[in-house]
Specification:
By secondary structure, the chain is an alpha+beta fold. About 20% of the residues lie in helices and about 30% in strands. The N and C termini lie far apart (about 170 Å).
């Protein structure tokens, strides 16, 4: 059943209200206020300097050049200059006998004659005395104990004696000729060249004082023999 008051009655208009369409208000756009200063674009950031990059490239090129130069020069592969290797010297003596000897840099080998016999004399570079003067020094030591120290090796050919060894290798012995006034020690070696000829080598160290005399010449003589730095031959 429909309620007698449905639909409800419209309320009575209230005083002060008007019926009808609501008048539209006119919207007038207000202009934006003008800026007090003229427009300026934002500042352009400064360009980065290329100077560090250029300096870095130059340094890199310099390092590369130095590395290439170092590889070319290669100082680690170069040998340090040192004393020159000793050179063998050959001496031709009487009866076709030849002596080849290699001495250290501080020593010198020369051919000298005494009493019509030519031999090989090995002495220190600093000693420029001839063999005759060295022999005189040995005599002076024995007589008065005065003289310059002697360090010398003498190699001379001689006729073999009956007691000479029948060997083509050096046979050595030691001999002490010292006195109360001086020290004089000899190392002697003999080698047979053929049935008639032998080669005799003597290392002599002498001085008024034993410590000064030392064993320089005798040590060198042993080294020449042991290291095959002296050889003797004969031409046919």
């Amino acid at each position: 059943m429909v309620h007698p008051n449905f639909p409800p009655n419209q309320p009575d208009p209230q005083p002060g209200y008007q019926h009808g369409p609501v008048p539209q208000q006119q919207f007038v756009q207000q202009p934006f206020p003008q800026q007090p200063f003229p427009y300026q674009p934002p500042p352009v950031p400064p360009k980065a300097s290329r100077a560090p990059l250029i300096v870095g490239l130059i340094a890199l090129v310099a390092i590369a050049a130095a590395a290439v130069t170092l590889l070319i020069v290669a100082p680690w592969n170069k040998k340090v200059a040192g004393p020159a290797d000793p050179v063998a010297q050959t001496f031709t003596l009487a009866d076709g006998i030849s002596v080849e000897v290699t001495v250290p840099e501080e020593w010198a080998a020369t051919a000298e004659s005494v009493d019509e016999t030519t031999g090989v004399i090995i002495r220190a570079d600093a000693d420029n005395r001839p063999l005759t003067q060295i022999i005189e020094s040995l005599s002076t030591f024995k007589e008065s104990g005065i003289g310059e120290p002697v360090h010398v090796i003498v190699v001379v050919p001689t006729n073999c004696t009956e007691n000479a060894p029948h060997s083509n290798t050096w046979t050595t012995r030691e001999e002490n000729k010292s006195s109360s006034a001086h020290t004089e020690k000899w190392s002697k070696a003999i080698l047979r060249v053929d049935d008639h000829k032998c080669m005799v080598m003597s290392g002599i160290d002498a001085a008024t004082d034993e410590s000064v005399a030392g064993s320089t010449a005798r040590d060198l003589m042993r080294s020449l023999i042991n290291d095959d730095l002296i050889t003797v031959g004969k031409s046919i």
